[in-house]
């Protein structure tokens, strides 16, 4: 097998792994949002605020720590979680307006 063919095989293996991980991420986010939707409905039905700054702060710190341990840029992890939190709050607010 030539070096180019070996490289192509290795590249295919990496891409297959990336594709599997992308699927895991999408399904994991889908599951996460199912839970946050349920939280939003629960908060709305009990007149609780859509956002919880203390929890959000704790979650960001927790994710930054996890990112460091996973050798992932903590700033990227923080931006990612902030994006998710903003989406969740928006969903929670939409439940509040329906109550």
Describe this entry's structure for a reader.
With 99 residues, the chain is an all-alpha fold. Helix content is 86%, strand content 0%. The protein is built from three helices and no strands. The mean pLDDT is 91.
Give structural attributes.
single chain; 99 residues; mainly alpha; 86% helix
Q: Would you kindly provide a brief summary of this structure?
A:
The chain has 99 residues and is an all-alpha fold. It is built from 3 helices and no strands. 3% of the residues are buried.
The biggest beta sheet is recorded as: none
**Count of runs of 4 or more consecutive helical residues:** 3
- What would you report as the Rg, rounded to the nearest angstrom? 19 Å
> In percent, how much strand structure appears in the residues?
under 5%
Global structural class? mainly alpha
What topology emerges from the helices and strands here?
Blueprint: H1 3-45, H2 53-69, H3 74-98
